[in-house]
Amino acid sequence: MVDNSLSPHGGVLVERVAPPGTSGDRAGLGSLPQLPVRDQIARECVNIAYGFFSPLEGFMGLSDLDSVAREMTLESGYIWSIPILLDVSQDHLSVLGIGAGERVLLTYQDQPLATMDVWEVFTYDLESLAQNVYGTTDSAHPGVQRTYNYHDRFMSGPITLVNPPQINPPFDRFWKTPRQLRQEMEDLGWSRVVAHQTRNVPHAGHEWLMKGAWLAAEADGILVSAVIGEKKTGDYIDEAIVLAHDRLREAGFFRQDVHRTSTLLWDMRYAGPREAVFHALVRKNLGCTHHMFGRDHAGVGGYYDAYAAHKVFDQLPDLGIKSVLTLEWWYCPTCAGVAYEGLCGHQEQKQDLAGTLIRSIIQGGVEPAPTTLRREVLEVVRDCAEKYGFGSPFVGEKYLANRTPVMSMPKLELNGEGAGCTCMDK
Ligand SMILES: [Zn+2]
Fold first, then answer.
1. Scanning 94, 200, 311, 418, which has its CA 20 to 30 A from the CA of 321?
2. How remote is the CA of residue 245 from the centroid of ligand 1, in Å?
3. Count of C-beta atoms within a 10 Å radius of residue 398
4. Closest Cα partner for 48 from 10, 21, 75, 76?
């Protein structure tokens, strides 16, 4: 085990972005074989390049993968819990003539994204990978499904971002690199920062979760870190999530100097306790000192104990970011407001504040009590439904097909002829 108390994870913030201009890392891009990558891989390239995934400098090789799968550590000894892999089919590699020792150009939306120095091309047993990471081989688990969908080879090696994507409104205000976030926290005078991971529009339970965690951590600030990635029907639309969280600050439910909303481009693996560890490491890289974990953090179905994410840290060395463990917040008619499981003695009267209840209120057109959902938040949710959601605050077919993407690739002219191929483009 390696001392993990340094900040960021691994001690150094990884930054692998080619400086602007056409010289240096961009020279000769046109002569590289081109490999189009899908949304997930593009997001992970961006995360590696800006240090969200420090100390990773590229996609994992066999020894790191094997160590992460079995021991939850990188080969270097640093804790790491979720494999970060670039999968590709052998057929595709053969067509492109790519192998170990080559440099390739990863492309996205038909534009250059990053270069990769290929160190290894390898295979790995996907069932054992699923068992180790997810604790199950059941393909009904979305993370296991994602694992089984990998192509038949993995390609490892460091990447360098050569064409930083443009983050589109309204996300541009909220997407910040770890370096930018660390600077902002310094400017705000924050030295103790508690991270709130979310994929939800905040109801009163979330608001109090944040307030309780801020008190428990004796924090200076709260960083909402909204996970933006692949969407499925019925999820809240991304725009509503970030704008509703920020509204809590704008409307003064959090003071201007204690609350910020940010985004993390990430496709949830639903790996329960392992994903909790991953979330802690990424937020540590953002500059957070504390991370809140509630009930069933990053879980799905009945695969994990409701408090597995609380227990996992007991078996790990100091990660340099502390867990703030919270029980449930619910609505209690006798307490006449939002109440905490650890305090309220009327458990038999508890009313669930979970998303499903709130959804039925929003969809049914009934005005929820401000004690369950702030009017200001409801207003944002309704505005977002009109402006971004094709009439609904929830993801539907129209949204999936027609939404403005979170990130777009600027045009980058290449010198020289590229050996393009689009058979993997999705
Ligand atoms: Zn009560």
1. 200
2. 26
3. 12
4. 10
